[in-house]
Design brief:
Length: 357
């Protein structure tokens, strides 16, 4: 059981992380003078210095030499770096192109895509409610396709890329900050090369957009790393079920921003599509809570049975020990009585030394 203070801190870190992720569209919108590719390059380039500072503060360097001797893991990190770069670019482009609502839809359906990957790739078995949720999610995509008049490729692209990222990360087995550092180290050189290319052609808003624009672009590293740090601090303090429920906060904030700040259109058929997605997520959440509750109850019953068995075994051992002690005490008494009888019969046989006056 986690201490209450740890749980409160975990909730605070988790809410901070998902709130910052949910409000990121406001930050990317401030940078709309730059192209999405330039914003992405700055995000990649400035993330590594932030990661290095964090590693220096935590003194966590021991993972690097073993990693460099494992080509397979390095290859998986390269795949992660490419996939998350695609995800970042698509998200930045969607925000600055006026598709915040569809971007939020992508992160709403991401859990459903992750479940589908678990079935198709990892051969995992689903519970009935999970199958129902996936079916409702597929129906939601069909409804949204009709609503948009085309496949919601932005939402699907975001969901597929992030689900792929999570799937590949399972094979790397690095903690959050280590994985983030390794991925940004791979991203650094391509990002710097692209930024140098933009500068050489006079197309860099970092050098032509003024001090404010330059600071905002440099701040992309902080905007990327700080939520990740908060998420890591939350993940070690809270159960996975709680983390799973909080993940819906970010797309909820994005959805609210799309409606209230960016004033995107939301006709009835899109409301219907989103309603189906939310229904699917409610089913997933209910299934996760019920499964966690049953697991805790089963664990408690197993603990009770183990406790009773241990108590019964302890009682048996105590009874055996008492019997052995009783037998030993009887033997001592018998021995003492035999010695006394021998002494009365022949005083010379008394083993006790006699002191003469």
């Amino acid at each position: 059981m986690q201490p209450r203070t740890d749980q409160r801190a975990g909730l605070a870190f988790g809410l901070s992380a998902y709130t910052m992720w949910g409000l990121l569209p406001l930050y990317w919108h401030l940078l709309d003078a730059a192209s999405p590719s330039e914003i992405l390059a700055h995000r990649m380039a400035w993330s590594l210095p932030v990661a290095v500072i964090i590693l220096a503060v935590l003194c966590r360097w021991a993972w690097i030499p073993p990693l460099l001797r494992q080509p397979k893991r390095l290859g998986l990190i390269l795949v992660c770096a490419v996939v998350i770069s695609v995800n970042w670019y698509l998200y930045i482009w969607a925000v600055n192109a006026g598709h915040v609502l569809e971007a939020s839809l992508g992160y709403f359906i991401n859990p459903l895509v992750s479940i589908a990957f678990g079935v198709l790739v990892l051969r995992e078995r689903l519970r009935p409610l999970q199958w129902t949720a996936v079916g409702v999610g597929v129906l939601a995509v069909v409804v949204m396709t009709v609503a948009y008049g085309k496949m919601p490729w932005i939402a699907l692209g975001l969901a597929l890329s992030f689900a792929t990222y999570g799937l590949v990360k399972k094979g790397i087995k690095l903690d959050g900050i280590e994985g983030f550092s390794a991925e940004t180290a791979i991203q650094l050189l391509p990002a710097l090369g692209f930024l140098i290319f933009l500068g050489a052609h006079g197309e860099s808003s970092f050098t032509t957009g003024g001090t404010g624009q330059a600071l905002l672009l440099a701040g992309c590293g902080i905007a990327t790393a700080v939520p990740l740090i908060c998420f890591g601090a939350s993940a070690v303090r809270l159960p996975l079920v709680t983390i799973g429920m909080m993940q819906y906060l970010a797309p909820t904030f994005q959805f609210a921003l799309g409606l209230t700040v960016f004033h995107e259109e939301m006709p009835p058929e899109r409301w219907a599509g989103f309603a189906l997605v939310w229904l699917a997520l409610c089913l997933l959440t209910w299934d996760a809570l019920r499964t966690a509750r049953r697991a805790r109850a089963a664990l408690a019953r197993a603990g009770t049975r183990a406790g009773r068995a241990a108590a019964a075994e302890a009682e048996t051992l105590a009874a055996e020990a008492a019997a052995e002690n009783a037998d030993g005490a009887g033997a001592d008494v018998a021995l003492a009585e035999a010695e006394q009888a021998a002494c009365h019969a022949d005083p010379a046989a008394d083993p006790t030394p006699r002191i003469t006056q």
